[in-house]
Amino acid sequence: MTAPPPPASRRRRPTVVITAGGTAGHTNPGIAVGQALVALGLEPDEVRFVGGRRGNERTLVPAAGFGIDLLAGRGIQRRLTPANISAALAVSLAAVVLRVPVIVTEQNARASAVNRFIGRFARACALPFPDTDLPKGTLTGNPTLPAVVNAVVSGDVASAREVFDLPLERVVVAVWSGSLGATRVNEVVRGLAERWADRTDVALRHVVGRRDWERFATPPEAVAAGSLVYQLVEYEDRMPTLLVAADVAVCRAGASTVAELCIAGLPAVLVPLPHAPRDHQRANTAELVAAGGAVVVSDGELTVDRLEAELGPLVADRGRRRKMARAAETVARPEAAERVARLLLEAAGVPALPPTRDAATGGQGPGGRTAGRGGRAAGGDDVGGTAGSGGRAADSGGTADAGQGGMA
After folding, report:
1. Model confidence at 22, in pLDDT bands (50, 70, 90)?
2. Is 10 helix (H, G, I), strand (E, B) or coil?
3. Is there a contact between 150 and 264 (Cβ–Cβ < 8 Å)?
4. Do 170 and 313 fall within a single domain?
5. What residues does 103 pair with on adjacent strands?
6. Are strands 202-207 and 137-139 parallel, antiparallel or unpaired?
7. Which string of DSSP letters, residue by residue, matches 170-206?
8. Any domain includes 44
9. Strand 229-233 relative to strand 124-127: parallel, antiparallel, unpaired?
10. In 3D, which of 310, 328, 311 has the Cα closest to residue 373?
């Protein structure tokens, strides 16, 4: 005779520890996984973060409703000292020593040093791209915040353009290159705006970034006097809405940016950060470019002539934009956060839970907006380290620990 299972109140429940931070490209995927774990049945207080005192996780994580413990480490430096050990490495090493199964999540196509090291001991590695170089890989995609996914997938173009006062009848080009911005991109886009000053079919929304704002805040005289709609902003805090409003993007190739472009089905001209560790931004573009959803221009080759040569045909050819949008959507993975969360629960020994109510897409799969994007009438990542994460998940003494984080 089999004894009945204990009541739910007496069953051991997992506690998940996510180690993530440094930049939004590290922190937000961790938050997305935390939110997915809650959607799968955990309580918010059963998800705990560990991060660094210097990173943005100290504000972003509590704002998302999760608790966090902050360590003093500054990230991996040239000399290995206690102060230079990142939160991700410290927590993951502790998990290895304590024989707590590890789940590593990585944001980039080229893994960070921490993740390549911890990946040797991991139960599994969650991969954002098919060719990410980690062992024991499971392709999950890059976790994206549900609020971003829902806003992008279910967004209405006309309403999004109204938010920015962008005309519906023009082709909208959105430009951004991280919260700080990129001088080369800003210079070239400004030059293209001068060249296109008399165009009546284009609207250009240029997110300059904080570093170069004073230099680029005022539009050139020719543009101010011309017909081109040219909007200059220092920082964009409504990126999901801009992804809906735009017809084509010019941007860097950070992992989160690439993931969001795919989910949005937004054609892009990608300019990878030239000195990213292991050239990971260029590697991030490979799957999207191979699918036909983007073109790549090296930072050193970015000139006004080259940008016009790449962007001009996209602006002129609605059919090509539609084809690129559909191609981007074929490699979109809006359910990535839930896939990673399920890996953590599996490692923790938690029985499989039923699928959530398509929380990532609001009931629409990627591709739901392609017809609207292609059928119109007219038409940063921050740097400072790899966007990797080294996490842990297990059931030990009634507690499951999991983590996600990266070098900052």
Report:
1. confident
2. helix
3. no
4. yes
5. 124
6. unpaired
7. SEEEEEE-TTT--HHHHHHHHHHHHHTTT-SSEEEEE
8. yes
9. unpaired
10. 328
Q: Please state the separation of Cα 120 from the chain's center in Å.
A: 25
319 within a domain of the structure (yes/no): yes
The tally of domains found in the chain comes to: 2
Asked if residue 201 and residue 189 are part of one domain, the reply reads yes
Question: DSSP alpha helices (H): ranges in 18-135?
Answer: 24-39, 57-63, 87-97, 113-118
- The structure tokens listed for 236 are 């964009």
Q: Are 163 and 205 in contact (CB under 8 A)?
A: no
Q: Which domain holds residue 355?
A: 13-146+334-373
Angle between helices 255-264 and 146-154 (to 10 degrees): 30
Q: Are residues 128 and 51 in the same domain?
A: yes
pLDDT tens for 152-204 read: 888 899 999 999 999 999 999 999 998 889 999 999 999 999 999 999 999 99
The bridge status of strand 137-139 relative to strand 171-176 is: unpaired
402 has pLDDT over 70? no
Final residue in a domain of this structure, among 302, 332, 362: 332
- pLDDT tens digits, one per residue of 119-158: 999 999 999 999 999 999 999 999 999 988 998 888 899 9
- Are 140 and 175 contained in the same domain? no
Residue 82 scores a pLDDT above 60? no
Instruction: Specify the pTM.
Output: 0.84
- Mean pLDDT estimate for the chain: 84
Q: Where is the domain boundary, 332, 365, 390?
A: 332
Q: What is the CATH number of the domain that holds 221?
A: 3.40.50.2000
Kindly state whether residues 227 and 326 are assigned to the same domain.
yes
Dihedrals phi, psi of 63, to nearest 5 degrees: -65, -25
Q: Return d(Cα 331, Cα 328) in angstroms, integer.
A: 6
